[in-house]
């Protein structure tokens, strides 16, 4: 394959220089239009899916339009975390062997790398490998609208490769922690703190008890962590507070442990610390942990064999943050992540793409696809 970094950057630029936060549907749609044209040019069928007007479209792209099963699902997201105005403020900029810009590494570089890998796939592999590419619009907010579609498509696929960035040290990702966010609301009874303290029920006292109880649920060794990260409550210093709220972050390696925490929180709500208090527990987001199964280990070995063949040093990371690979892995489909070019500084102005890694990572992906085709 002939590869021109200049050509790659020219194609990347319009994808970076557009405001396409998860809640900027028109920006995500512009990226989708652009990506659609690229794939149509190489003969892939593109189907647009609009799951909610609150977000942009998703794209389902395949070289096997009527297939019931795919050999591989490739995936990436078109949205970023950045507000409108960011693209104009700091558009794509190349400096030495780095490129900078909003979403350049998370993950426009990976979105484009998938296309490059497929467009130059060796004839033999292209003929036999049934590929589906899913680009979603809402990954950065937890994929609330695209999640079911991603999981359904993954279930029709033998494996899933996600093109989030490889780490700056070259590592790919074979495991990711699960996470959840809870909103806990405490309802007490207001009363005058001076005249009728005993008639009140303090929501803040209840919240304080919960904070201590939640800290007790942390199991650092198992990697199950909880953090009461935000609290609010009360209306005045002389009023017994009738309302308080806590937002809690949960991270875990073990999906059963997460369900255990969930059950524990709900049991606590059923028997409040302060008599007369009412507590509501709401799990606002949930992403299961991604742990490698035996089938995933086989896929890891395949990737390592290709990397060794190419003389490309790689390694594997167990990442704390989640991606869409968490959902597909939890559905039982072997899933690996980090197939994009190397980078870092995600979700910050310092976000960078390592230009020297672009071609080697596209070749790695291509080598893996060729080997999957040969495996049949
Ligand atoms: Zn990402």
From TrEMBL:
Active-site residues per Swiss-Prot or TrEMBL entry: 79, 139 (proton acceptor)
Annotated Pfam families: M20_dimer, Peptidase_M20
Q: Does the keyword Transferase apply?
A: no
Q: Which InterPro entries match?
A: Bact_exopeptidase_dim_dom (IPR036264), Pept_M20_glutamate_carboxypep (IPR017150), Peptidase_M20 (IPR002933), Peptidase_M20_dimer (IPR011650), Peptidase_M20A (IPR050072)
User: Keyword Hydrolase: yes or no?
Assistant: yes
Q: Which residues form the Peptidase M20 dimerisation domain?
A: 175-273
Q: Specify the protein name.
A: M20 family metallopeptidase
Task: List GO molecular-function terms, semicolon-separated.
Answer: hydrolase activity; metal ion binding
Name the domain of life: Bacteria
List the source organism.
Answer: Crenobacter intestini
Keywords carried by this UniProt record: Hydrolase, Metal-binding
């Amino acid at each position: 394959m002939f590869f021109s970094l200049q050509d790659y950057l020219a194609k990347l630029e319009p994808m970076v220089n557009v405001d396409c936060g998860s809640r900027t549907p028109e920006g995500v749609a512009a990226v989708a239009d652009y990506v659609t044209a690229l794939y149509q040019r190489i003969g892939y069928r593109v189907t647009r899916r609009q799951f909610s007007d609150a977000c942009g479209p998703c794209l389902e792209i395949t070289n096997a339009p009527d297939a019931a099963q795919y050999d591989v699902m490739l995936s990436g997201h078109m949205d970023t975390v950045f507000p409108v105005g960011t693209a104009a403020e700091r558009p794509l900029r190349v400096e030495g062997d780095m490129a900078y810009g909003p979403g350049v590494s998370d993950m426009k570089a990976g979105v484009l790398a998938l296309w490059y890998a497929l467009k130059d796939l060796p004839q033999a592999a292209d003929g036999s490998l049934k590929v589906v590419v899913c680009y979603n619009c809402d990954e950065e907010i937890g994929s609330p609208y695209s999640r079911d579609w991603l999981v359904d498509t993954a279930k029709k696929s033998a494996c899933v490769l996600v093109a989030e960035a490889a780490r700056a040290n070259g590592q790919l990702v074979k495991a990711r922690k699960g996470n959840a966010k809870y909103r806990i609301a405490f309802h007490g009874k207001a009363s005058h703190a001076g005249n009728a303290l005993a008639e009140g029920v303090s929501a803040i006292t209840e919240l304080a008890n919960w904070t201590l109880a939640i800290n007790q649920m942390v199991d650092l060794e198992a990697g199950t962590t909880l953090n009461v990260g935000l609290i609010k409550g009360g209306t005045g210093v002389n009023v017994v507070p009738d309302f308080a709220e806590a937002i809690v972050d949960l991270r875990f390696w073990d999906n059963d442990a997460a369900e255990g925490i969930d059950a524990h929180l709900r049991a606590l709500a059923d028997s409040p610390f302060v008599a007369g208090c009412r507590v509501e527990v709401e799990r606002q987001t949930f992403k299961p942990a991604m742990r490698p199964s035996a089938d995933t280990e086989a896929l890891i070995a395949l990737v390592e064999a290709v990397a060794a063949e190419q003389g490309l040093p790689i390694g594997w990371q167990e990442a704390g943050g989640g991606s869409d690979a968490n959902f597909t892995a939890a559905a039982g489909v072997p899933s690996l992540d980090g197939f994009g070019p190397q980078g870092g500084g995600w979700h910050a102005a310092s976000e960078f793409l390592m230009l020297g890694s672009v071609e080697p990572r596209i070749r790695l992906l291509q080598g893996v696809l060729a080997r999957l085709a040969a495996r049949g």
